[in-house]
Design brief:
five-stranded parallel beta sheet, binds guanosine-5'-triphosphate, Beta-Lactamase, diguanylate cyclase activity, Rossmann fold, diguanylate cyclase, Alpha-Beta Plaits
């Protein structure tokens, strides 16, 4: 017969021989192994630990090691406290006959458990068929089951997971985080959904959506929690890609009106905090229709891209260009007042005609008309857009290739 191993902590050593002689009357063989810290003891072992050898940091390890806690002064309250902390049972250290019956009962229970774990269940087959890592833990945070994908995700065989605490399968820093989250969910009950970055067994960093729920025993007590880990890395990547596309002008690569609306709101908020002024230029290409007429639509497209690059040449580092309409652009200057914005607008106006683009059919040089306004609060934005449009119209009406300023007092 294979001897059953009993792990024991040092303060119990003087009582070991007395217990051993009692156990000799049973039909079992026992092997004794001393330990100094519970984490050294293999999971699912029979463990006898004296309270003087056990601190609070050992509690997460107790449940997975079927720890019998021996106490100096036994009371029902003390026993309950120990069991709630993860101990399998709690007995007075000198109550040797009770300790002996615990050892025998535990040994026979383990044999039954091992037997039932070997039996495949239909629930396990269902879990294994779901292509998402799934696990369940009892109220002491011990893994009681998981599916094939959970094992693959962790890169561990099932025997290394089931019956183990999170401290047995994850580094302590991570285990502390999981343990705390599990405790919070168990205390609150119900369900919990959150996203976290997790490293899989092959080292890939994945974005995971954890869906967890507390389950209850037949008597209504909390039994533990189940968790499913949805890999949302690809979904999030696509969402980020879609979001970027929805804010970008595909022709020129600069932001569109949607991106501008977000940017102007952020700029005004920052400007209020830093007491800096923010200004806006609205820029429209002069006689752009004739560019299309002469060089064709694709020539016009090239001209628009070229124009954006020419504007960027002379913008301050924090200035941003947005394409608002066909050949109309906004330039947001988050740290410039009206006077500074006017200087920048003039630079753009002069710089653009100096740039020539070679197109099939000839060399193209363009001019632009520009309206300039210093922005007020977010509430005044609609009014500001109207006013700066009027300034642009004035630039067009008074000969084009001009900069006109907009004010609030007209
Ligand atoms: N190639 C090209 N042309 C565009 C695009 N979007 C708008 N347009 C053209 O831009 C031209 C705008 O013409 P108008 O609004 O009449 O203005 P304009 O000719 O620039 O004249 P002013 O603004 O009055 O100086 C039209 O011919 C549009 O077809 C685009 O994405 N690509």
């Amino acid at each position: 017969m294979i001897p059953s191993i009993i792990y024991y902590s040092s303060a119990f050593a003087p009582w070991k021989e007395t217990l051993n002689s009692l156990l000799q009357d049973t039909h079992y063989d026992y092997q004794w192994v001393p330990f100094t810290h519970l984490s050294e003891v293999p999971v699912a072992s029979m463990t006898i630990v004296h309270e003087s050898d056990c601190g609070e940091e050992d509690h997460p390890y107790m449940g997975a090691r079927k720890a019998l806690l021996l106490v100096k002064a036994w009371s029902f309250k003390r026993s309950l406290q120990a069991i709630n902390s993860g101990a399998n049972d709690c007995i007075a250290y000198d109550d040797i006959s009770r300790i002996a019956s615990w050892v025998v009962a535990e040994q026979s229970r383990s044999a039954w458990q091992a037997h039932s774990l070997d039996q495949p269940s239909s629930l396990q087959t269902v879990l294994d068929a779901i292509p998402v890592p799934i696990f369940y833990k009892d109220e002491l945070h011990i893994y009681r089951g998981c599916n094939r994908y959970f094992c693959e995700f962790l890169g561990l065989p099932k025997e290394r997971i089931v019956g183990h605490s999170v401290y047995d399968i994850a580094p302590k820093e991570l285990a502390d985080v999981y343990y705390e989250a599990d405790q919070a969910l168990l205390a609150a009950g119900g369900t919990q959904v959150y996203e976290a970055s997790v490293k899989s067994a092959n080292g890939d960093l994945m974005e995971i959506e954890f869906n967890k729920a507390v389950f209850y025993k037949a008597n209504g007590d909390k039994g533990g929690q189940v968790g499913a880990m949805l890999n949302i890395t690809e979904r999030n990547r696509l969402m980020r890609q879609l979001d970027k596309a929805s804010r970008t002008d595909p022709l020129t690569g600069v932001g569109n009106r949607r991106e501008f609306n977000i940017a102007v709101s952020v700029a005004l908020q920052k400007a209020r905090q830093s007491l800096r002024a923010t200004s806006l230029l609205t820029i429209d290409v002069d006689h752009f229709k004739s560019v299309n007429d002469v060089y064709g639509h694709s020539g016009g497209d090239k001209a628009l891209k070229f124009l954006v690059n020419s504007m960027l040449d002379v913008l301050p580092d924090d200035g941003r260009v947005y394409r608002i309409g066909g050949e109309e652009f906004y330039v947001l200057l988050p740290n410039n007042d009206l006077a500074e914005a006017r200087v920048i607008a003039e630079k753009i106006r002069q710089h653009i005609p100096e740039q020539t683009l070679s197109l099939r059919g000839g060399e193209l040089a363009m001019t632009v008309s520009i309206g300039v306004i210093q922005l007020g609060t977010e509430l005044q934005l609609e009014d500001a857009y109207k006013r700066v449009d009027r300034a642009l119209y004035e630039a067009k009406a008074t000969g084009r290739n001009r900069v006109c300023l907009a004010y609030y007092d007209d």
